[in-house]
Specification:
34% helix; 163 residues; alpha+beta; Jelly Rolls; four-stranded antiparallel β-sheet; 8 strands; 22% strand
Length: 163
């Protein structure tokens, strides 16, 4: 299967200096970024929680897929080069391999988070208070259902309403 670097070879390239913000927490989901080189830090509520330097990593996908403002800030730790998909939905719809890559990345993150919560649940099973709430959190994550899928595409955002 092709990776995101291969699937994005035709996209425009943007160079970003160290310290600059590529995606601002709370901003609209108006583009996807694929890391070509450099390193970025992921921050939420001004707290850095991840550093990513793997070429082919994608940023802005959660916001685009959920159609919600960005959940985190992506800041260049070093000088960074990214490929830019200015229309995230079209990029994912027209390149199913890219959508599958994003799905695998998201599933991997969710699997890691779930395993972490299971470990915490086992460690604090007999606790009360906020540590005892891990069971409720895990249950919410496992049983969370998204809103109903909407028909339509990037080309026809209203969908086919003919019956």
């Amino acid at each position: 299967m092709a990776d995101l670097l291969e699937l994005s070879e035709d996209l425009p390239v943007e160079s970003v200096p160290a310290g600059a913000v590529l995606i601002e927490e709370g901003s609209d989901p108006d583009r996807l970024l694929i890391l070509v080189s450099g390193s970025v830090t992921i921050e939420r509520d001004d707290v850095a929680f991840a550093r990513i330097d793997s070429p082919g990593s994608i940023f802005g996908e959660m916001s685009a897929v959920l159609r919600r403002p960005a959940t985190a800030t992506v800041r260049a730790s070093t000088d960074v080069t990214v490929r830019v998909a200015a229309d995230p939905e079209a990029f994912l719809i027209e390149r199913p391999g890219a959508a599958l890559n994003v799905l695998r990345t998201t599933a991997s993150r969710l699997d890691g988070l779930t395993q972490y919560l299971v470990d915490v649940k086992a460690q604090f099973a007999d606790q009360s208070g906020h540590l005892g709430m891990v069971d409720d959190i895990l249950d919410t994550l496992v049983h969370h259902q998204s809103p109903a899928a909407q028909t339509g595409s990037a080309r026809d955002p209203e969908g086919d309403h003919q019956h």
